[in-house]
Amino acid sequence: MKFVDLGLQYYAYKNEIDEALREVVESGSFINGPQIAALEKELAEFSGARYAVACSSGTDALMLAMFALGVKPGDEIIVPAFSFIATASMVSFLGAIPVFVDVGPESYTMDPERIEEKISERTKGIIPVSLFGQCARLEEIEAIARRNGLFVLEDGAQSFGAVRGIVDGPSHIERCRSCSCTDSDIAVTSFFPAKPLGGYGDGGAVFTNDAQTAETLRRLRNHGQESRYRHEIIGLNARMDSLQAAVLLVKLRHFSVEIERRRNAAAIYQACLSGLRQVETPMQDILNESTWAQYTIRVPYRDKVREELLRRGIPSAVHYPLPLPMQKAFGGSGQNVRRGYRVSEELSMSVLSLPMHAFLTEAEQCEVCVALDEVLAGLGEDAMAEVSYG
Ligand SMILES: *Cc1c(COP(=O)(O)O)cnc(C)c1O
């Protein structure tokens, strides 16, 4: 069993993918081929955002977005304490200051109630992360941002395709009057291979509804040039390869079905695991439809459980073992120390992500659940009794 099985996915779409790759290779148009504009159009349509700008990675997308928003050295940007490093590291990379906010104990996303106490006159924006595929509490966060004159940049690296606030309608686009990456001032996603919509290498995109911002982003990612060797602004090389766009165009055609399959897989886990004492299953917000980038539970003695699962042939992962403020890169001690990020710390010690992808079988999921049951039972009653999640 694999944690994410990209091989099965490849064989499912092999003919289409091989053909798409061959077309790029034969055309020789590796940079800025027609696949880029085609992908951008499809991404915009799928999400409902007016403009999508493809780029080299989710990390670069964050940097480009902040550049376009005019983030300057010394600006303070509010980010969650519990996320992948790039959410906060790109803030620091631009010379700005990440100001961490703890996450909520149920959603695991930025706690809107903790934001306003962190706002100062140097605060310029908020970067909520739609963690594990479920939208952050964007409406509340956007309201806080509006009151305080701040931008909202949604880090949708894990949530492209997620629905926020479901509206009745037959197709994805009709339902998602509001989707991840659609309505914030600006949003980013990642096409890292293991993300729900993944390429065959690095890739990302920035989403905006503003034509001027989209134009700025297009220049920024391509040496700041408007036409060849005419440079209007200082930019960088953060383009997406034509080959990646070709792969993503194929995968996007199947993405709605894949999201449905991931939702089914999550429902199966939910049904099997809700009976297991001491397993906390992820919150399913009725107003949001997750893409289930990760199916992440909480268990006692997480590291021990993970090791025992692996001995039974079940791979798992920890997203994430250390809250961001405790990372040495941000001046932390490299250890958990209680400093106002209680939920993030508790999560970092108890979260465990189970195998999740669109080609996971029910039999495999059963195997995971049976193994988990066995492992937890093996921990003994005393060990179980100690644990309680606040
Ligand atoms: C994956 C990820 C990123 C970075 O994306 P890359 O394409 O790997 O650079 C940023 N933020 C979050 C929350 C992520 O999960």
In a nutshell, what does this entry contain?
With 390 residues, the chain is α/β, with parallel strands linked by helices. Helix content is 39%, strand content 13%. It has helices at 6-27, 34-47, 58-68, 86-93, 138-148, 172-175, 211-220, 242-253, 255-273, 302-311, 342-350, 362-378, 381-386; strands at 51-55, 76-80, 97-101, 123-126, 151-155, 163-164, 186-190, 204-208, 225-227, 230-231, 288-289, 295-298, 351-354.
Structure, explained:
Helix 1 (6-27) crosses helix 8 (242-253) and helix 9 packs parallel to helix 12 (362-378). Strands 1-8-7-5-4-2-3 form a 7-stranded mixed beta sheet, with helices on both faces. A two-stranded antiparallel sheet has the order 6-11. The radius of gyration is 21 Å and the shape is globular. The protein is of the alpha/beta class and 390 residues long. It contains 13 helices and 13 strands. The protein is 39% helix and 13% strand. The structure holds pyridoxal-5'-phosphate. Residues 57-59, 83-84, 86-87, 129, 155, 157-158, 190, 192, 202, 204 line the site of pyridoxal-5'-phosphate. Pyridoxal-5'-phosphate binds at residues 57-59, 83-84, 86-87, 129, 155, 157-158, 190, 192, 202, 204.
Strand arrangement, major sheet: 1-8-7-5-4-2-3
Shape: globular
Assembly state: single chain
Q: What level of helicity do the residues show?
A: 25-40%
Which regions contain 5 or more consecutive residues with pLDDT less than 50?
Answer: none
Structural class: alpha/beta
How many helices?
13
How many E-type strands? 13
Question: Which ligands does the model contain, each kind named once?
Answer: pyridoxal-5'-phosphate
Mean pLDDT: 93
Radius of gyration: 21 Å
Major pleated sheet: 7 strands, mixed
Beta strand %: 5-15%
List the helices and strands in order.
Answer: HHEHEHEEHEEHEEHEEHHEEHHEHH
Distance between the termini: 33 Å
